[in-house]
Design a protein that fits this description.
Strand content: 5-15%
Bound molecules: magnesium ion
Number of helices: 10
Order of helices and strands: EHHHHHEHEHHEHEEH
Number of domains: 2
Largest sheet: 6 strands, parallel
CATH superfamily of the largest domain: HAD superfamily/HAD-like
CATH topology of the largest domain: Rossmann fold
Strand order of the largest sheet: 3-2-1-4-5-6
CATH class of the largest domain: Alpha Beta
CATH architecture of the largest domain: 3-Layer(aba) Sandwich
């Protein structure tokens, strides 16, 4: 299959979001005087909030402060009623930009697959964070459109965010478009809902039933896949 248009997810697909999050979170927890046991608690809160975003019951821009408000509440932090959640959220967001790094080899894969194609980024995330990462990593050298849920008010798997990205790329047909991402519930479900082919980036190599058009276990496999 030869694809003319590539749509990429960002977090956990092109960039090592776990690494950026861990480094930024460690800085923020030390500011708040919390020890590393708060990391698991934060992750559980964050996962819950983003699942609410995917379900359409929470706006993505609410996640930024709410996760720290809940963290301070659950740890009965003495400053939980102050502006501390907001300050931690701002520091954390800055850290997510400062520590954003490609997975090894990801930029070489972008070099190899994007030439002569229309390429869009479709990401569920906070506008300021994702814009900061786009600038830091120089993504505009490969991408012609950026659809960010926090800016558009619509999140994957809602196909509207993919429709908006394709419109920005001036693409009206769906037959040679592929949505590439690590999440079955947002990227693959969203791509299917939008009527485009899908490619699941499955680094863990676990699940067999995935519903995607294609499955790769490393980004490098995209080079052959997109033709
Ligand atoms: Mg992702």
């Amino acid at each position: 299959m030869s694809y003319q248009t590539l749509l990429f997810d960002l977090d956990h697909t092109l960039i090592d979001s776990d690494l950026a999050e861990a480094r930024s979170l460690s800085q923020v927890l030390s500011i708040a005087g919390l020890d590393d046991t708060a990391i698991d608690r934060y992750r559980a809160i964050n996962t819950q909030l983003w699942s609410e975003v995917e379900a359409g019951t929470r706006r993505p821009d609410e996640v930024k402060v709410e996760r720290f408000r809940r963290l301070l509440e659950q740890t009965e932090h003495p400053d939980r009623e102050s502006d501390m959640p907001k300050r931690l959220a701002d520091r954390f967001a800055s850290g997510l930009v400062e520590h954003a790094e490609f997975y090894p080899g990801a930029s070489a894969v972008l070099d190899a697959v994007t030439g002569g194609r229309r390429v869009g980024l479709v990401t569920n995330g906070i506008g300021a964070v994702q814009r900061g990462r786009i600038a830091r990593l120089g993504l505009d050298q490969w991408f012609g459109a950026f659809a960010i849920s926090g800016e558009l008010g619509v999140s994957k798997p809602d196909p509207e965010i993919i429709d908006r990205c394709l419109a920005d790329l001036n693409i009206s047909e769906r037959h040679s478009v592929v949505m590439i991402g690590d999440s079955l519930t947002s990227d693959i479900a969203g791509g299917r809902a939008a009527g485009v082919d899908t490619c699941w980036v499955d680094r863990s190599g676990g699940v067999v039933e995935h519903g995607a058009t294609h499955r790769v276990t490393a980004l490098e496999q995209l080079v052959e896949l997109v033709g």
